[in-house]
Amino acid sequence: MARLTAINPAEATGKTKELFNAVQSKLGVVPNMMRTMGNSPAFLESYLNLSGALSGGTLGTKTGELIALAVSESNSCDYCLSAHTYIGTNLVKIKPEVIEAARLGNSADEKTDGVLKLAKALVSKKGLLSDADVDAAKKAGLTEGEIGEVVGHVALNILTNYFNNTAQTEIDFPVVNAYQLETV
């Protein structure tokens, strides 16, 4: 059961209504995560702005989705795993085996593997990377700008993971559960 209330878009007012209208026009729906974030228009707007800015980065939509899956698995966020599995499969057209590998921080593509290893390291080491971690990312082909974007994507997904785990947001996508690995 949800700990925080998801606002009905038809009952929203003020800045929350304005933000919901923008989400509705872009996605055709206001997902429960955003409806719940709408309790604080400043929070919802911050999330939307960071997400929008990163979507225009050099890593691309597919890589952004793969990072989201890796981070969400690390943080055992079933809401985000469900959302990003759905988006990755149905909108970005990522193959199921690629999605499964990404959850564990792996990819057959060397550069994408470097991105996912970096993302997993950022989560597990709470951002306290070693020189070897950064060197491995560079050896995998990431530019310094792309390394910065990976940090941004990880931060965005930690934000949504922590929010949804706190709120126990009702999942409005086909449910995907975390593997519950002892170490991720």
From TrEMBL:
<protein>
    <submittedName>
        <fullName>Carboxymuconolactone decarboxylase family protein</fullName>
    </submittedName>
</protein>
<dbReference type="InterPro" id="IPR004675">
    <property type="entry name" value="AhpD_core"/>
</dbReference>
<dbReference type="InterPro" id="IPR029032">
    <property type="entry name" value="AhpD-like"/>
</dbReference>
<dbReference type="Pfam" id="PF02627">
    <property type="entry name" value="CMD"/>
</dbReference>
<feature type="domain" description="Carboxymuconolactone decarboxylase-like">
    <location>
        <begin position="41"/>
        <end position="103"/>
    </location>
</feature>
<dbReference type="InterPro" id="IPR003779">
    <property type="entry name" value="CMD-like"/>
</dbReference>
